[in-house]
Amino acid sequence: MSLGTGVVLGFVIGVSGSWLLATRKRRSSAHGAKENLTSPLLAGHSLTTPQLLAWIDAATQGWLILTPDLTIGYINSQAERLLQFSRNLLVRGLPLDEVLSVPELEESIFSVRHQQRPQRCEWEQQGIPLEAIVIPGSDEWLLVLLQNRQSLEAQQQQQERWVSDVAHELKTPLTALMLVSDRLEGAVSADDGVLVERLQKELRRLQLMVEDLLELSRLENILPREESNYSALNLEQIVEGAWNSIRPLADQRDVSLSINTHEPGPLLGDQRRLHRAVLNLLDNALRYSPYHGFVEVDILPSGGWWLLCVRDHGPGLSETDLSNMFQRFYRGDPSRARSNRSGSGLGLAIVQQIAVNHGGRVQARNHPEGGTSMELLLPKGPA
After folding, report:
1. What is the largest CA-CA distance in the chain?
2. In what order do the strands lie in the sheet with 72-75?
3. What is the predicted pLDDT for the residue at 24?
4. Distance of CA 13 to the CA centre of its chain
5. CA 154 from centroid of its chain's CA atoms
6. With contact defined as beta carbons under 8 Å apart, do 163 and 214 qualify?
7. Cβ(362)–Cβ(351) below 8 Å
8. In terms of C-beta density within 10 A (0-12 exposed, 13-18 middle, 19 or more buried), how is residue 81 classed?
9. Residue 38 has pLDDT above 50, yes or no
10. Is the confidence at residue 14, as pLDDT, over 90?
11. How much is the average pLDDT of 288-306?
């Protein structure tokens, strides 16, 4: 999902419920005065009903707002077009099942009501491939985002091709420069050798950055809960596999891994990308771990979720670092790190995007007994 869509989702969820409730109150009131709507997301600002309607109607996506009893509270013209409703059919205020019978959508609505997290579904509406993302709101209101899959896939493919082309154009000269630096290493004096070593280090960092940018672009073009590559997984095995990937770096500083699993259970996800997410979290913990220390991993059940906690025993992070560490290219206070290895600045942003794509989230906090704890929350798979 693109950043623009994410902003739209947050905005509409915060505003649409207030607008609909205000509309109902106005209909039952003897006074016809125009009211301003205020959303918690727009503190200090007001939004009138005409402004909200104009904004929703101008959106390129289809929007459908469902009341707690699954009546169509509002639908914009784009949604009516995608669902191929007749212009003469006034669907607002009608029960959804009277005007639309889509088992896939009904199943997603049922799942959202019970799991309280977004669900995605696909179907064909008279030959047009559609997708819907059903998002839970407060007091059982639901928001449905509708899009034409063909148009969306074309946009995603165009963006991925562009990023891929740029990455390829950058990779070629970087590879050539690495070859030149390797040749220079044995042909220069000891004093110049220090400069060549610095050059090689920066070139490797740029190569890593290009690869991570390409991966982040791919992740952002995956819709939430896209399960085509999902399989039954075991979190403990993913942690062990990721740690084996960085074990040589850990052995250099005599840092060990401690895993505490409180309850084994099912997890459904993309094995390769969850391995990458856990690897990045472990690598981050290793950077802040002291010599002869250890990285602590706890795997805990939390309702319908798995909580993976990765804790280092370093000095902890500042409030600024905690607030910004999942932003692209953000680099924390280097004096707190116990390793001089430099990354791309995208590792934790990739973790966050992988978590979102799996219907989960990631957060960081300073542990009360010292060090920093990274917490990855993922939905459980079917039992």
Report:
1. 90
2. 72-75, 62-66, 142-148, 128-136, 119-125
3. 41
4. 18
5. 21
6. yes
7. yes
8. middle
9. no
10. no
11. 89
H/E run at residue 258: strand 256-261
Q: What is the three-class DSSP state of 249? A: helix
Contact call for residues 318 and 301 (beta carbons, < 8 A): no
User: Would you say 209 and 345 are in contact if contact means Cβ atoms under 8 Å apart?
Assistant: yes
pLDDT grade for 105, boundaries at 50, 70 and 90: very high
Question: What is the pLDDT, as a whole number, of residue 118?
Answer: 87
Q: What is the pLDDT of residue 70?
A: 94
| 154: region left, alpha or beta (phi > 0 left; psi from -120 to 50 alpha) | alpha
Which residues have a catalytic role annotated?
168
Cα separation, 187 vs 174, in Å, equals 20
- Beta bridge partners, 361, equal 377
Nearest in space to 266 (alpha carbons), one of 241, 225, 235: 235
For residue 118, give the nearest of 100, 99, 131 by alpha carbon.
Answer: 131
Percent helix, strand, coil in the chain (nearest 5)? 50, 20, 30
Contact 104, 122 (CB under 8 A): yes
Spatial separation of the C-alpha atoms in residues 383 and 371, rounded to whole Å:
34
The pTM for the full model equals 0.54
Q: What residues does 119 pair with on adjacent strands?
A: 134
> What's the whole-number average pLDDT of the chain?
77
Nearest to 70 by CA among 38, 41, 110: 110
Q: How many CB atoms lie within 10 A of CB 187?
A: 9
In the chain, the domains with their CATH numbers are 3-149 (3.30.450.20), 228-383 (3.30.565.10)
pLDDT digits (tens, 9 = 90+) for 197-254: 777 777 777 777 777 777 777 777 666 556 667 888 889 999 999 999 999 989 998 9
Give me the pLDDT at residue 53, please: 67
Rounded to an integer, what is the distance from CA 140 to the centroid of its chain? Answer: 24
Q: What is the dihedral of CA 324, 329, 272, 359, to 10 degrees?
A: 40
